Amino acid sequence: MATAVLTTAPVKRDDALIEEFGYDDHFHEHHHGDKYQSNFVSHYIFSQDHKMIAKQFLITGMMWAIIGGAMSLIFRMQLGFPEESLAWLQPVLGKWIAINEDGVGTLVADFYYALVTMHGTILVFFVLTAGLSGTFSNLLIPLMIGARDMASPLLNMLSYWFFFISGTIMFASLFLSTGPFAGGWVAYPPLSALPQAMDGSGAGMTLWTISLVLFVVSVLLGGINYITTVLNLRTKGMSMWRLPLPIWAFFVTAILGLLSFPVLTSAFFLLMLDRGVGTSFYLSDIYIGGAALDHVGGSPILYQHLFWFLGHPEVYIIILPAFGIVSEVLSVNARKPIFGYQAMVFSILAIAFLAFIVWAHHMFMSGINPFIANFFVIFTLIIAVPSAVKVFNWIATLYGGDIRFNPASLFAIGFVSMFISGGLTGIWLGNSALDIQLHDTYFVVAHFHIVMGVAAFFGMYAGVYHWFPKMYGRFMNETLGKLHFWGTLIGAYCVFWPMHYLGMAGVPRRYYSFDNFQTFGHFDGMNKFITIAAIITFGFQLLFVINFFWSIWKGRKLTVKNPYQANTLEWTTPIETGHGNWPGKLPTVQRWAYDYSKDGIDYIPQIQPIMEGETHDH
């Protein structure tokens, strides 16, 4: 029936048609589940099953998180204990540890900047963009909308492998004799545009650019797939207003990526022309070693505009998937419907729109017209409104709920805490007058690490703990999970909260050493405290990694399809889910995703028909 209708009216693939008839490509009849995946390579390496690709994104992202986190510890040790010898790191870092006549080892200044650059690049792109969105968009979109797989499993596989190749190139740049790129993760010209500017601006910068262009290809391939799948492959009855909130978040995130990442690619294209062909898009009146270079007429501010046109949507590309995950986890574990479902959807859409018109609030100190700055101040403050709507609705969802305090719900609640405390400081930075004092200080580091870095990690952890049984058929250890949560929550606040005070005192970020600044000497103790807290917090993340891999093989087995008594479709698949997700026919959706504690019933799955006298949907 469905096939006939879709064949005769292909143009009418609108919401009403999908809700009435659904979409089923009869995958099961043609492919017989998993039988066609006959060997190790096609099953685990070049898999086209969205669930396996999600695991690939997650584990690759975890490896990158360990590398990026370890880099931050090395440069924090330089900042916190500049008088201590780092000679013990020489077997790992080689010539980047300089040892003096007394045998005292210090980090080479150029490599300090390379570590800061690589740490930012790795965490923003490879962990929080690919690791978070790539994992959960892949895992949950087909399962939650009732689809066999993504619209194009081949493109889905390619999106992971472009990400993997991109990461491999970035990793290779760490081993160059001149070192990796060291001009900051934002890659502002002229350091990024002149190969001779510093050692890291040579081959390291070239590999950095190639890596990120390939990364953009990965994001675009994934994004096209996510959008097409959500629009076209929803099962019968799954209207857009019945979608679980994670799917709305992943859908809008994919749209943001498609619209903003190509702008970054264009910025890199012009940058490579400046580097290799002698053009002057970003360069003008440059002197190196007293000699004038042949560059006239360019503007480094043009690069900033292009970069931040991606850079601010990128903040929401990172945080929106966490919004969706947290909304789902809180509702399931509070045993309550999500408060204000439609307001949550509209706030996601509002954030996505406003994300494109606030980019220059990163540029208040770049010399832009103050009247233009006022425009960006206003919209920066306005974007706080839909964010506040979400926070209010999360708190309202928790209020009066019968909350289960498991690791997933704890991290979701911790996310709300981080998002509030980190978001409030954004109001200060969004004010162009206050930004004169706070720009490029540790206040900025504190703000974006709490609201974007740590909060996004909390959303990711909530998702991993919650859907781990769906991925691996086992549970992660709950005691270790709670220990991980409390250690990370307290540790993250100990690391980043003191940085606000450093920033208000004017301590600049990206400085290798403060020895020559007498005025900053009395912050030595605070720097030591932050460094010790960072090392301990990193240790708790290793506890998570141990718990994760141990649980894959030794965790408590999943024995029922729906261990959390949740309503969404992913918990209707068999415990051991084959490629195609559901044996036989796809499920039919009868209601929205958040019927908890309704009419005296604890939970009502989406596939249960509307009962007589029951109010329809939300």
UniProtKB/TrEMBL annotation:
It is an enzyme of class 1 (oxidoreductase). It is found in: Membrane. Its EC number is 1.9.3.1. The chain crosses the membrane at residues 57-75, 111-141, 161-188, 208-233, 245-273, 306-326, 338-359, 371-396, 408-429, 441-462, 483-502, 529-553. The keyword Electron transport applies. One of its GO terms (molecular function) is oxidoreductase activity. Residues 36-608 form the Cytochrome oxidase subunit I profile domain. InterPro entries: Cyt_c_oxase-like_su1_dom, Cyt_c_oxase-like_su1_sf, Cyt_C_Oxase_1, Cyt_c_Oxase_su1_BS. The keyword Transmembrane helix applies. It is a multi-pass membrane protein. Keywords: Electron transport, Heme, Iron, Membrane, Metal-binding, Oxidoreductase, Respiratory chain, Transmembrane, Transmembrane helix, Transport. Belongs to the heme-copper respiratory oxidase family. PANTHER family: CYTOCHROME C OXIDASE SUBUNIT 1 (PTHR10422). This is Alternative cytochrome c oxidase subunit 1. It comes from Neolewinella maritima. The lineage of its organism: Bacteria, Pseudomonadati, Bacteroidota, Saprospiria, Saprospirales. The gene is coxN.
